[in-house]
Request: fold
Amino acid sequence: MSETDLHTHAEEIREQFSDQIDIDVEDVENRLDTLVNEYKVPANEARRSVVNTYLDEAGIDRDQLGGGGGGNEQVDLAEVDAPEEWVDIRATVVELWDPRADAVAQVGLLGDGTGTIKFTKWSKSDLPELEEGASYSLRNVVTDEYQGRFSVKLNRTTTIEELDEQIEVGSDSVEVEGALVDIQSGSGLIKRCPEDDCTRVLQNGRCSEHGEVEGEFDLRIKCVLDDGEEVSEVIFDEEATEELTGITLEEAKEMAMDALDTTVVADEMRADILGRYYKVTGPTFGRYVLADNQERLTGTVDADELLIKARSI
Amino acid sequence: MATTPSREVARRVFAREFNDASYTFKESDDDRAPVYVLLPTGQRANRVFLVGTLTETEDVGEDSEYWQGRVVDPNGDTFFMYAGQYQPDAASMLRELEPPAYVAVVGKPRTYETDEGDVNVSVRPESISEVDEATRDRWVVEAAERTLDRIRKFNDQDPEDPDIDEYVAMANEEYGADVEPYRQSVVGALESMEDAAEASAD
Reply:
C-alpha cells in the first residue's frame, strides 16, 4: 500500500478516536505500515487490528467510538462481497420477516438499485424501528456471510436516518429462461434446523452448527436453467415449489411417510419438471435466482422466420 | 463475488453435426479438466441437451446391464446414448421407457474409436426424462436457432484472420470449411415443423 493511502487510513483512525483520546497519526501510520507492508495483512484487517490496539490501550469500548466520519465506505448492496466489513448503505426496506428469536428485533430484506441483501437488527442494540417500504441511510453496519450469501447486521453504533427520497429497488429482479437441465441435491422434502435464527438444511439429521436436532420439514428445489448459452441456478421456496410441481408440503410429507423415505418426493418432482422449459423471474441472491414468478413454456414457437433465415444463408 | 467453478452450458445441436464432432480436446493438463468435443460449426461442447424420439432401447451389456438408447431428431438422424451402472438413473429410464416416446436428455459427449479406426460420438446421459410434444417442438426450434447462430459466426470469420475465434479456427483445421450439411439439417428440421403444423391445420 502506498504511503498516501496509509496516511489517509491513519488520519481516519485518529479522527475516530478524537472524541476519546488524542492519538499520534505517525504512530498509527507506523503500526499500519508494519502490518500491511511487512506482514502482508489486508488493509481493512490491519485497520481493525490497529483500532483494537488503541481501544485496548485506552480501555474503551468499540461501541463508544465515533462512526468514524469518513471511516466507512458507502457501498451499493451488490458490492458487498466479504464478511466483517464496516460499511454505510442507503437502501429501502423491501420486506420485514418475523424474527425467529428474541435476540433479533427486526429481520428482513434491504434493497437498492443494485440488489437486495438480508439485514438483522439485534434487540440489544436498541435501535429505532425500520418500516417496510421506507428508505434509510444506515451508517456503520457490519457485513456477514453464510454459505456464499451476504447479509448486514445493524449494531449499537449504527446510525439510522430516514431519507426523504425513495431508493428504487428492482433492477436486481432478473428474468431467466431455459430448459431445466438439473435438479441439485438438497431439493424436494428437506429438514431445516429449528434453532433460533438458524435455518440451515440438515444433513442426515444434523445441523452443521447445532449438531443433531429435530428438524422442521420444508419444500425446496434448487435447479439449473440452461438456454444453450448460459446457465442460471434457481431456488424455488415452498410456495414456488408447490406452484411448480403441484405438490404441497403436506402431500410431500405423506408421500415420504408412505415410502418411509424422503427422497421419493424429489424423484417425483424430477419426473415432472426435468427437461421442460421454464421462464422464471425473481431477485438474485448470491449466485441464485429466487423464483418469484414462473411459467412453463409450452406455447408453440414460430419456425417461419427462422426458416427464411436458414434458407437465405 | 465468490467464484465457484462454473457449470458447463448444455449445447443444442442436431444429430448430424453431433455425430461428426469426433475431435476432442482439453484446455488444461489437469486430470480433472473437462473434455470437450469440437462441433464442426466451431464451438466446444462439454454437455448437450437434446429432445427427440426414443425409438429403441437395448441392453447391450455383457456382464452387467449397459443400456443403449437411440433418439432420433426431426431429420431422422440418430443420437446414440449409453448408460450403465455409473448412470443408474438414466439406465433405469432406458430400462423402463416404452419406445416410441419423446425424451429430453442431458448428457456428456463421448467419443470412441472403432476397430476400423472410425470415431463414434455418443451421449453419456446425466438424466433422461419423458416429455411432451410441445417441449420437443421448442427444442427443435431452439436447436435450429443455436445452430444457425454458429453457422453465421463460422461463415463470417476469415480463417486467415489472426483474431479469428479460436474454436472456429480449430473447426476449420479439424473438419474443413464446409458447414453446408448442418445448414441443411436446420432447414430440414424447421420444414418438418411446418409440415406438421400444416397437417394439423388441415
Summary: Strands of chain B lie at 24-26, 35-39, 43-45, 48-59, 67-72, 78-83, 101-113, 119-130.
